[in-house]
Amino acid sequence: MDKIEFHNMYATDILFLAELLSTPSITASLHSEPISYKELTDVYEKHWVNDEDEKHFIIWYDNQRVGWLKVNGLSGKNKAWLSMLVIRADYQNQGIGTSAVKFAEAFIKDNGFILVGIQTTIDNKKAVSLYEKCGYKVIKNNIFNAENGCKYDAYVFEKPV
Hints:
Strand order of the largest sheet: 1-2-3-4-5-7-6
Mean pLDDT: 95
Structural class: alpha+beta
Number of strands: 7
CATH topology: Aminopeptidase
CATH class: Alpha Beta
Radius of gyration: 15 Å
């Protein structure tokens, strides 16, 4: 899929990210509330822009922003995490998520790690299916504490790179 590109995230991408993270189907799958442009700008400026432990990418398809990919654990050893992957609903099921996982794996490997970890809630069937299709294995069940205070059953996946 040569129409897919991964660009470093910048402040100019925050409006897109706020729109993405306010989409009802996405907030439902992430068990989150919509987040405003101002809130995301504050998080970006206070935390993300200078955090050496994580890297954010905006996913472009056919010259349009269509998703967000976040990798973290970059300050550790051996294992880094694909900690967020969100694709606009109208661009799902087109191979973009698979390409994003492969991109994240290559990025993680290129940065000296040997394992990729992922956690997602068990009820996020699209994510579970994607990670299994990409060769990830469940290594344990976990509890995900959502920002709304609720707890959800989750899988922790792992794969060598």
